[in-house]
Write a structure and sequence with these properties.
The structure holds three protein chains of three kinds. Chain B is mainly α. In chain B, about 70% of the residues lie in helices and about 5% in strands. The radius of gyration of chain B is 23 Å and the shape is flat. Chain C starts with 10 loop residues before the first strand and ends in a 21-residue tail after the last helix. Chain C is built from ten helices and ten strands. The chains are: A mainly alpha, B mainly alpha, C alpha/beta. Chain C: It is found in: Cell membrane. Chain C: InterPro entries: AAA+_ATPase, ABC_transporter-like_ATP-bd, ABC_transporter-like_CS, ABC_transpr_CbiO/EcfA_su, Co_trans_ATP-bd, ECF_ABC_transporter_ATP-bd, P-loop_NTPase.
Chain lengths: ~375, ~250, ~260
């Protein structure tokens, strides 16, 4: 998704730059509050600011985790974009800062994303993803029962929506300042449609990762901090780690189903959106969709697989999706893959639940 | 581990371009790209001249062309997008090699390709003639918020450390017979990612302790500052100024 | 150095007790005095509270009860800047300690944070790097160094602050024998009080004439290192084991002063 130079015209790029700068300024203030302290560190707060080292390390983590390949099938693989994950783990402000720094470094060091398009990239990938993900995440947590499972489920939905949201933001910017008049409906459909699929991958990975962190150090998950501290208060004293590890099983089952439904509905709504546009402009859509799909894949490989070494480009050979049914198939696939993944994840999760903590430790 | 592999982005050397202060180079590269982006796409010749300018800088910096061209590959995904444009954009149609393509689409493709390529080339030149550390100093000098520069410098410092940790975890996984083949293995991979996050965060806490132990109280002491003389600025300005001249010609012609 | 009242010992810990916010109590009244120029090994099993004690020495953790004085100066909020200059802690993982982009900047960090600039700062950096034999690596990024070199630079970052007392957390861990010896030579050559937290008993014996055992949050023993290591019952009681084939009785040391 890294936008190069010349894609968006100069005034809009500049405006995006101003927006990005403003958001970063706000985040710089906000991040200081967010990184105030976790349960283990409060005693060490005798001076000095934690923002720089912590955000720096989290940025390095995001950078590294973008290189972690998640195989899908038949040699293709995806990876994490990380905006939603950052927002949930360290909070939206720090999240914005971390992703911004990653983008800045990618732009300057790896020429990944144009220098003039930096503002656009930050707005799309840094701000939109983190803000949308975090807002959704908090909103869902407010509604759901306060358990760890809810946190994982909310992460799933937040990450799922954050990716197409970023695609939408890109489309909006392109609509205002795109250098070529591609019919905006097509761009939107293709972008959002493809990104719903990408979003599912992102969502699964994000939810699993958040789940893994929460199993071991729940105090580190910013979005779940309210959760742990309220649990801690009740005990307040002798038993050290016990409160954080209560699984709260009976509630979880119910909430999980709720989330499943919510997630499915979200996916369906988004997919429906796609199908509406797909039927509205059938001509040429399938090509945009197909090629942009490839585009996405190759870009992600090229962009982050091994940023320090060879920028190899793979998977570009897939140009065969043809026929007018691409849109429809896309929608179907979205739903099927979405619910399938949901099902698998749910099953795995329920299997893993009892020994989740110990497993996470093992896999370190 | 983690020791010894120098950055492949930077090409060590001593050339007039290498020796320019980093903030001058960043500013020059940025201005150059701005000028390129603002050039009307109909002035095809102007983009040729820009390319010549960059070629001259490359030669001046003694960067092998192959090195530069290889790094340009980063752009490929958007080339795919650009190649698509002539077929998608509505408007006046024309025939190229027997294919029906749209004229505005062709222009759009050309626009993205030319500007994108020049932008990437400029960034690559910047990164390959400036050390990481100086880039950060340059950004600091260009008044990027200090906290942002600090975050960036911590990211650079620990990027390798954490990538290495990730690699070790992957080796550990594979040593125990784990092979990630598909979606079913995502749980394990995500747990590694979670563990990696915890390690990173805890390292951040330890780094903070180490900083506090050495008297850190919230702001990094400025140890190095880069300065540029008027002549250095003038040298760095050559590229964007020439480009601007070309751009203005492009608008008037 | 900056202390006119010479007799004050480098480190005076008395009655130190501490519980973490989560309720876990790590220290139960630690008393420890380390005189000027002494080299003392702090031994103890895992979880004995060694790291907790170390973090009290420069005020990162706040004593629940008891006091810590460094060269006579109590560790209190208002003295923190001076305390942190006087107490140089070398952490276990040099990657945590070397957080700046180049070795030189890292070594300069401490003195610069205390306000030093320009030529004076430069001089400090060179001096500290010379002390650990790393002066030609000044402009290298820390992650391009070997582990042993990183550990040495970590020592230099602390030396640059001209500390009253050098506190080393597991200095010999992960070092190959040659680096281990090099570090020992460096430590011996320094004219500074050293408190060395370690599991490496031969290393303690080699470097520190005196040793204390911290066990279950209190100082359980305080004696000549060789005597401690030879007391098999004491050692066993505190989960301290000598490496296979190592007999502390067979080692003859030319104990320096003290």
């Amino acid at each position: 998704m890294h936008v190069p130079d010349g894609f968006i015209d100069a005034p809009v790029s500049a405006a995006a730059g101003v927006v990005a700068a403003g958001a970063v300024a706000v985040s710089l203030r906000g991040a200081r509050r967010e990184l105030g302290g976790t349960s283990r560190s409060s005693a060490a707060e005798s001076g000095g600011e934690r923002t720089a080292p912590l955000a720096g390390l989290v940025a390095a983590f995001i950078f590294a985790v973008q290189m972690l390949n998640f195989p899908v099938a038949a040699g293709t693989s995806g990876h994490l974009l990380g905006g939603a994950l950052a927002a949930i783990l360290v909070g939206p402000y720090t999240g914005v800062l971390c992703v911004t720094v990653v983008l800045l470094m990618q732009g300057i060091l790896f020429a990944d994303g144009g220098l003039t398009a930096l503002g656009v990239n930050v707005v799309v990938m840094g701000i939109t993803t983190t803000v949308v993900a975090y807002a959704l995440f908090r909103g869902l947590l407010g509604v759901l029962p306060r358990t760890r499972r809810s946190v994982t489920a909310a992460s799933f939905v937040a990450a799922l929506v954050s990716v197409p949201a970023a695609a939408g933001a890109f489309t909006l910017i392109y609509w205002i300042g795109g250098t070529t008049d591609i019919p905006i409906g097509k761009v939107f459909t293709a972008m959002v449609g493809v990104h719903v699929l990408i979003g599912i991958g992102e969502a699964v990975i994000t939810a699993l990762t958040v789940g893994a962190v929460i199993a071991v150090r729940p105090d580190l998950v910013h979005g779940a901090r309210g959760l742990t501290s309220s649990l801690k208060l009740r005990v307040d004293g002798e038993l050290v780690d016990a409160p954080a590890r209560q699984p709260a099983a009976p509630v979880a089952a119910r909430s999980h189903r709720g989330i499943w439904v919510t997630g499915l509905v979200t996916a369906l709504v988004l997919a429906g959106f796609v199908s509406y546009y797909a039927s509205a402009d059938p001509d040429g859509l399938e090509k945009v969709a197909a090629d942009q799909g490839i585009d996405k894949k190759t870009e992600e490989h090229a962009a982050k697989d091994s940023p320090l070494a060879d920028y190899g480009v793979k998977d570009i050979s897939d140009t065969r999706i043809s026929g007018g049914l691409a849109g429809v198939i896309g929608v179907g696939a979205t739903v099927v893959v979405g619910s399938g993944v949901f099902y698998v994840v749910r099953r795995r999760r329920t299997q893993d639940a009892p020994d989740g903590t110990s497993r996470a430790g093992e896999n370190v | 581990m983690g020791a010894g592999h120098a950055h492949k982005l930077y090409r060590h050397g001593h050339s007039p371009v290498h020796d320019l202060p980093p903030h001058c180079k960043i500013a020059a590269a940025f201005c150059f790209v701005v000028v390129v982006v603002s050039t009307p796409r109909e002035s095809v010749w102007a983009f040729g001249l820009y390319a010549v300018l960059l070629g001259a800088v490359t030669a001046f910096a003694r960067i092998p062309a192959g090195f530069l061209l290889k790094r340009l590959l980063i752009e490929v995904p958007f080339v795919a997008f650009a190649l698509l444009m002539p077929f998608v954009v509505p408007g006046e149609q024309t025939h190229v090699l027997g294919l029906s393509v749209s004229v505005p689409g062709l222009w759009g493709a050309w626009n993205v390709l030319a500007k994108g390529t020049l932008g990437v080339a400029a960034s690559v030149l910047l990164a390959s003639t400036t050390e990481l550390r100086s880039l950060l100093l340059g950004l600091q000098r260009l008044k990027l918020p200090p906290l942002l520069v600090q975050i960036a410098s911590f990211m650079i410092r620990y990027g390798d450390v954490i990538t290495d940790e990730m690699r070790r975890m992957s080796i550990a996984r594979r040593s125990r017979g784990f092979e990630a083949r598909g979606v079913r293995q995502w749980g394990v991979l995500a747990k590694s990612a979670g563990a990696l996050f915890i390690r990173s965060y805890e390292r951040g806490e330890r780094v903070h302790l180490a900083m506090v132990s050495r008297g850190y109280a919230g702001s990094m002491p400025v140890i190095d500052e880069v300065t540029a003389s008027r002549t250095q600025w003038a040298h760095a300005a050559v590229l964007p100024v020439l480009a601007l001249a070309i751009c203005l010609l492009g608008w008037t012609l | 150095m900056s202390q006119p009242t010479a007799p004050a010992p480098s480190l005076e810990v008395s009655g130190l007790a501490y519980a973490y916010p989560d309720g876990h109590q790590a220290l139960f009244g630690v008393d420890l005095t380390v005189g000027r120029g002494e080299r003392v090994a702090l031994l103890g099993p895992n979880g004995a509270g060694k790291t907790t004690l170390v973090l009290h020495l420069n005020g990162i953790l706040d004593a629940g009860a008891g006091t810590v004085r460094v060269a006579g100066l109590p560790v209190e909020k208002r003295n923190l800047a001076e305390i942190r200059r006087r107490v140089g802690i070398v952490f276990q993982d040099p990657d945590d300690q070397l957080f700046m982009p180049t070795v030189r900047e890292d070594v300069a960090f401490g003195p610069a944070a205390s306000g030093l600039r320009g030529a004076e700062l430069e001089e400090r950096v060179t001096e500290a790097l010379k002390q650990v034999g790393m002066e030609e690596y000044a402009n290298r990024p820390p992650h391009h160094l070997s582990f042993g070199q990183r550990r040495r630079v970590a020592v230099a970052t602390v030396l640059a602050m001209r500390p009253e007392i050098l506190v080393l957390d597991e200095p010999s861990s992960n070092l190959d024998p040659a680096s281990r010896r090099e570090l020992a030579d460096i430590l011996r050559s320094l004219d500074v009080t050293v408190l060395m937290v370690t599991h490496d008993l031969p290393y303690a014996l080699e470097l520190c004439p005196r040793a204390v055992i911290l066990s279950e949050g209190v100082i359980a023993a305080d004696d000549r290192t060789q005597d401690l290591l030879c007391d098999e019952k004491l050692m066993r009681n505190h989960r301290l084991e000598l490496p296979f084939g190592f007999d502390p009785r067979s080692v003859t040391l030319d104990v320096p002063r003290l």
